Amino acid sequence: MRRQATRTSAMTRSAAILLAAALLAGFASAENEAVLIAVWDASDESSNATVDHSLWQSLLDKFLREHESGVNRFDYGALKASAADREALADYLAALQSIDPRDYSRAEQKAYWINFYNVLTVETVTEEFPVESIRDISESLLGIGGIIPVGPWGDVRARVAGVDLTLDHMEHGILRPIHRDPRIHYGVNCASIGCPNLVATAFSADNTEALLDEAARAYVNHYRGVDIIDEDFMVISSIYTWFVEDFGGGEETVIQHLTQYAEPELAVRLENFAGFIEYVRLEPEPPLSHFRPSRKAKIIDTMPTLAPTTPRNVPPTLDLPKRLRTESTGTSLMRMPCRIALTCISTVQP
After folding, report:
1. Which residues pair with 163 in a beta bridge?
2. pLDDT of 194-221, one tens digit each?
3. At the N or C end, where does the chain have fewer CB atoms within 10 A?
4. From residue 48, how far is each of 110, 117, 226, 233 by CA, in Å?
């Protein structure tokens, strides 16, 4: 009788997991669409007013670690432990919410929204830290309990000019449709190892274009962005399929974009590449090309694994590590296994 109950419970949980995966697939597709929130489509190009981002810069200077691996880490634990710095973060967020960005120029708005998105992400993770994945954070009924890892992007976390705002609003309803700049994806940070780095400099109207170019080059030339395994097989980040419309709408335009920001050697390989391209959600260390699989490996962009193990869709020939490699630079890096390496919190631990 007990065995039957256990079997029934396991079947029920399996069914719940399959339903969760199906629902999340639908949500992910909808969330990637850029749909303008018309109320924010206004600016004052005659204005020379600027927004003060010095508090954000001071927090970046204190808690962001630029690592030799090319993956920046943010010390959420240290920020959470410092009442004074958490107050500074709250003050900065209050200042951003106290103004109406429509009174500023488009250039000033672009920097405002990127910084706003990034600091709001930092606040979100810091509040829940320690946490394995940002997807585990959610105020949604779908996310409570961790059955469906929807993340915090749809949660209302700010209010500007009397309008409630989510991270999704900022990215998909304001930044992407208004500015139509694929480099936005290198500026907004998702607090995950596989995503582009949190930029170490606060954005401003004067430096945004240069910082976005620099961030694009850093990501494209790191194996998280592009990893050409051999002449027949290349793995690139799923950012380029999730938001393919922002990168021209197809593989050819994606390759053109990557070539634009690639270092000379990588650019030549991209221009001459005629093999199979796969989009991968995983970010193993070292890069896939270091594993030299005995046969062509295909990594499928699929739903996240719901157990803390090597994802089922990765062929065993790749022998992917279950833990991120740790590299000591005075501070030990996070050692927890990643359910999805792309969404493991990019942090440091004491």
Report:
1. 160
2. 899 999 999 999 999 999 999 999 999 9
3. N
4. 14, 23, 39, 50
